[in-house]
Amino acid sequence: MMLWQTYLDWFTQQYDLVIGDLQEPNHIEIGPFLDATDQRYKDAAPFGMDWAIIYPDGKYFRVKEAYYRERRSTTGAGVRTNFSFHYGVANTNCDPEGFPIIRHPDTPRPDLRIDLDARSGPHIHLPTEDHIPQSRVDGYSISNADAFQFLRSVIKHRKSQIPLRDLLGIKVN
């Protein structure tokens, strides 16, 4: 569980550590948008983050997380209930905020997307297959995925072209 200000401080510290390596000439950065959505209780959940960089070669990453208040929490702390960490070719169609659209018939398949959502639980998407559940993934805990670990792997991938799956230790059976 995490409070908004704790999350904001953590995000800011991690952002400062990676942003220089994520940026490339002529990139487009969207966000990061960090929002505490309950204006009456500004340090309480729900809150979230949404951020992307589109690179000149047409690839992009998007990381998105949402924390919701636990029912019996008296502190206002939130639990991360869903997230999506995406890397691949950017759709040229974008939403009003500038993020490439991912749920559209002409959306390119991701190189890798790591998701947690209420409907499908923890799962990954690969270029060849969607919604691969944790039960088929070895070497990586999807539920414990970390946005900045993912981004550090994106940095290494862009420099080395080693597949993200390999950098993260993901094996699918």
Quick take:
This protein has 173 residues and is an alpha+beta fold. The chain contains 3 helices and 9 strands, in the order H-E-E-E-E-E-E-E-E-H-H-E.
Largest sheet: 7 strands, antiparallel
* Alpha-carbon Rg, integer: 16 Å
Strand order of the largest sheet: 1-2-3-4-5-6-7
Average pLDDT score = 92
Give a description of the structure.
With 173 residues, this protein is of the alpha+beta class. 22% of the residues lie in helices and 36% in strands. Helix 1 packs parallel to helix 2. The longest helix has 19 residues.
Would you spell out the secondary-structure blueprint of this structure?
Blueprint: H1 4-22, E1 28-36, E2 47-54, E3 59-69, E4 78-89, E5 110-117, E6 121-126, E7 129-133, E8 137-138, H2 147-160, H3 164-168, E9 171-172
Antiparallel strand pairs: 1-2, 2-3, 3-4, 4-5, 5-6, 6-7, 8-9
Helix pairs in contact: 1-2
Short key terms for the protein model shown above:
seven-stranded antiparallel sheet, 3 helices, 9 strands, two-stranded antiparallel ribbon, 36% strand
